[in-house]
Amino acid sequence: MSGGRRVLLLGRAHHDLRAVEALRALAARAQAHAGVPVTACFLDGAEPSLHAALDGCVRHRAAEVVVVPATADGYLAQWAARAPAHWRERAGADGPPVLVAPPVAEQPGMLEALASAVAGAAEAPPVSPAGFRSPAWTVLPRPRTHLLLCRGPRCTAYGSGDVLRALSQVTRDRGISEVEIMITPTGCLTPCNLGPLAVAYPVGRWHTGLSPEQAAAVVEECLPPREQPPAASEVPGLPGPVPGPTGQRDELRPVPRPDRRARDVSCLSTPAGPPGPQTPNRPRRRRAPARAPRAGGGSCSCAGTSTAAC
Question: Cys staple from 230: which of 63, 168, 234, 310, with CB 3.0 to 4.6 Å?
Answer without folding.
Answer: 234
